[in-house]
């Protein structure tokens, strides 16, 4: 099952698995040593797939009058995966292609600058790496932070349902003070909810743009395992906490979320039911076995 899982994963996610992100981020940190760290502390929610309660926790956090979190903004375009991909493979390629303007270029003497620009090998001349990092921050802040500040709220962020742990690593690299909530739900219940929706809309849950959609328990289990594996392995290395939907829905997790974010939250928000899906059929025994065979280790680790 392990090899079949890996083969299937490569088939479904060939364009956004970030295989060398850890080494790349470590390299970029070394190159940007001394660069001023961002003082921003956004909130990011990463959910292990659809039908997991991500909108519920988003609304709960937004109940604080100083917060406005966006929901899956442009995620259907896979924007966040592609942004993270831009910082991939740096360490592997630098020896061959690196040619950067020095970080202290602002104090370079005119004659030295002319010497560098006219006599050095400049075929791959690039701005300092610190400017690449600043550009990523600027893009995200213009997109997410600026609209929030214009309506008088200071704390900004985003919730995602398709994104894996590497997107979280990318965001944490840009914003070391960011807070992350990793949301999980019993995969049997979540998958069943998805399958009921798929019967009315076969393209409700795209894994790649106009290419592959969750269409069965196998697809869902693979996506769930892919997300949860990363959450379990890395949450304690990031400023993150894992929340179960079952505890969120009953209000048991509200206090821990409030304490983690240092925010006062309105628990009454949990009473408002929005876009509730009616379950017409229960998950079949066959589909339960499929999910268990693929994600049994993670299911056990979470106590489901």
Explain the overall architecture.
With 304 residues, the protein is of the alpha/beta class. It is 49% helix and 11% strand. It is built from 13 helices and seven strands. It has helices at residues 2-12, 21-31, 54-62, 79-85, 90-97, 110-119, 129-150, 165-174, 187-198, 217-234, 245-249, 254-261, 285-301, and strands at 43-47, 67-71, 155-160, 179-184, 206-208, 212-213, 240-244. The strands form two sheets. Strands 2-3-1-4-7 form a five-stranded parallel beta sheet, with helices on both faces. The protein has a two-stranded antiparallel sheet with strand order 5-6. Strand 5 (206-208) and strand 6 form a beta hairpin. Helix 9 (187-198) runs antiparallel to helix 10 (217-234) and helix 10 packs parallel to helix 13.
């Amino acid at each position: 099952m392990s090899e079949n899982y890996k083969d299937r994963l490569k088939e479904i996610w060939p364009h956004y698995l970030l295989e060398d992100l850890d080494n790349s981020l470590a390299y970029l940190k070394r190159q940007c040593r001394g660069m001023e760290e961002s003082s921003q502390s956004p909130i990011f929610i990463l959910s292990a797939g659809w039908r997991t309660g991500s909108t519920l926790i988003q609304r709960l956090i937004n109940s604080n009058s100083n917060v406005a979190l966006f929901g899956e903004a442009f995620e259907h375009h896979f924007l966040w995966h592609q942004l993270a991909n831009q910082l991939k493979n740096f360490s592997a390629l630098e020896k061959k292609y690196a040619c950067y303007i020095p970080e202290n270029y602002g104090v370079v003497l005119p004659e030295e600058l002319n010497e560098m620009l006219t006599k050095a090998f400049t075929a791959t001349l690039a701005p300092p790496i610190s400017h690449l990092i600043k550009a990523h921050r600027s893009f995200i802040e213009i997109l997410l932070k600026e609209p929030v500040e214009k309506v008088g709220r200071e704390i900004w962020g985003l919730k995602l349902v398709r994104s894996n742990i590497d997107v979280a690593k990318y965001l944490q690299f840009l914003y070391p003070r960011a807070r992350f909530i990793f949301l999980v739900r019993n995969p049997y219940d979540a998958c069943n909810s998805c399958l009921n929706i798929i019967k009315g809309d076969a393209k409700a849950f795209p894994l790649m743009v106009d290419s592959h959609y969750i269409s069965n328990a196998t697809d869902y289990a693979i996506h769930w395992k892919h997300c949860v594996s990363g959450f379990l392995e890395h949450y304690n290395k990031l400023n993150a906490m894992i929340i179960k939907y079952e505890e969120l829905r009953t209000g048991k997790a509200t206090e821990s979320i409030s304490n983690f974010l240092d925010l006062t939250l309105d628990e009454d928000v949990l009473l408002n039911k929005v876009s509730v899906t009616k379950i017409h059929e229960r998950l079949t025994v066959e589909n339960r076995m499929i999910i268990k065979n693929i994600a049994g280790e993670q299911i056990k680790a979470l106590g489901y």
